[in-house]
Amino acid sequence: MINVRSLSITGMQWYADRLWLTSADASVVATYNPTNESGTVVLSLPGVRHACPSREGVWLIAGGGRLGQQLLLWSPERNKVLRRFDCPDGAASGATVLKDKLWLTHRRNRKLFCIDPNSGGALWTIRMEHQVFSPTSHGDELWCIECDPGPLGDWSDDHQTAYAFLRYDPSREEVTQRIPIP
């Protein structure tokens, strides 16, 4: 058991009636059951930033890639890494699975990547207008958070930064909805 309130959460996904949480500071992947408010550590991994459960296993974003971060497909049943790929452009700010494809965001480079989960190769690289992170999928929809950091980029004041929920349609390769976050 772990008190998830004590964790500094770096990633979160809902899957199989529980939240999958990552904490880079604590180097853990944990699950949280909201019904009985219990948290369980399922893996200790230095530098883990994000977990994305799927039918194949749990995709993890962690340190250790040639250019920085890497993608790992971990099997909870076998407690071993099944596949390992370097993240495109050396980093990722979240991952989700949609229609058997792995989708990654690269916040600083303003890119959305569609990755072949078997080879690790980039199938598509989509340039985004602003920074994007924390992707998630629901049905056939791909959502992420968009950040317009303002006129000075990351050095802008907080009041110059604007956030929005972004719906992206992979089949049309376009943003179909932008919901400002007040």
Structure description:
The protein has strands at 11-15, 18-23, 28-33, 38-44, 50-53, 58-63, 69-75, 80-86, 95-98, 101-106, 111-115, 122-127, 131-138, 141-148, 162-169, 174-181. It is built from no helices and 16 strands. It has 182 residues and is an all-beta fold. Strands 1-2-3-4 form a four-stranded antiparallel β-sheet, with no helix packed on it. Strands 5-6-7-8 form a four-stranded antiparallel β-sheet, with no helix packed on it. The mean pLDDT is 90.
**What's the overall geometry?**
globular
* Oligomer type: single chain
Characterize the biggest β-sheet: 4 strands, antiparallel
Q: How do the strands line up in the largest sheet?
A: 1-2-3-4
The poorly predicted ranges are none
Strand content: over 45%
Percent of residues in helices: under 10%
Tally the beta strands: 16
Average pLDDT level: 90
How far is it from the N-terminal to the C-terminal residue, by CA? 35 Å
What sequence of helices (H) and strands (E) makes up the elements? EEEEEEEEEEEEEEEE
User: What class would the helix/strand composition place it in?
Assistant: mainly beta
Task: Give a brief rundown of this model.
The chain has 182 residues and is an all-beta fold. It contains no helices and 16 strands.
